[in-house]
Write a structure and sequence with these properties.
Serine Threonine Protein Phosphatase 5, Tetratricopeptide repeat; 9 helices; about 80% helix
Length: about 170
């Protein structure tokens, strides 16, 4: 009986240690392969905690982006949003990935949600979201909405060159 109790206690300690190692590996940024493996282990071992899962998916999405796998990054950012629908950062990052892929019709709702969830974000972040959404509107043929977003971005950050350029393209003024 003593051996069984010791074995159970040892397995709990080792299991907790492995879980903690996975979390540490997931949250480090020096070795992206280690980060991917750590996040994957942490996600597999931590299905009950939605908040922790959202964080692990976010870190893993960042690792996928650094490795150039935009499809898996978008899949993980979608998981972040499923587990934490109030994550402006996840909507913003997914919008940025989709922007870089030229998927402008998908950019607009993601940046709209990021702006809605975090209206008081850092000025550069908020202006950038408006500017990128403005470009997406422009690329999808919505010039009036694009101009409005470029103007909003400049109201937040008057030095933002992307929005100045965006206004010049259709001949609009700030």
């Amino acid at each position: 009986m003593k051996r069984l109790a010791l074995a159970l206690m040892f397995s709990c300690v080792v299991g907790t240690h492995a879980w903690a190692d996975a979390k540490l590996d997931c949250q480090q940024h020096e070795d992206r392969d280690r980060q991917l493996n750590g996040c994957t282990r942490y996600i597999e071992e931590n299905q009950a905690n939605r908040r922790e899962l959202a964080i692990a998916y976010f870190f893993r999405a960042a690792a996928y982006l650094h490795k150039g796998d935009k499809n898996l990054a978008i899949a993980d950012l979608t998981k972040v949003i499923e587990h934490n629908p109030k994550s402006a950062a996840a909507y913003g990052m997914r919008g940025l990935v989709q922007f870089n892929r030229g998927e402008y019709d998908r950019v607009i709702p993601d940046f709209t949600k990021a702006i809605e969830l975090e209206p008081n974000a850092d000025d550069r972040v908020l202006a950038g979201r408006h500017m990128l959404r403005g470009v997406a509107y422009e690329k999808t043929g919505n010039a009036d909405l694009a101009i409005a977003d470029f103007r909003r971005a400049l109201a937040i950050d008057p030095d933002q060159q992307g929005s100045k350029d965006g206004l010049r393209r259709p001949g609009a003024t700030p």
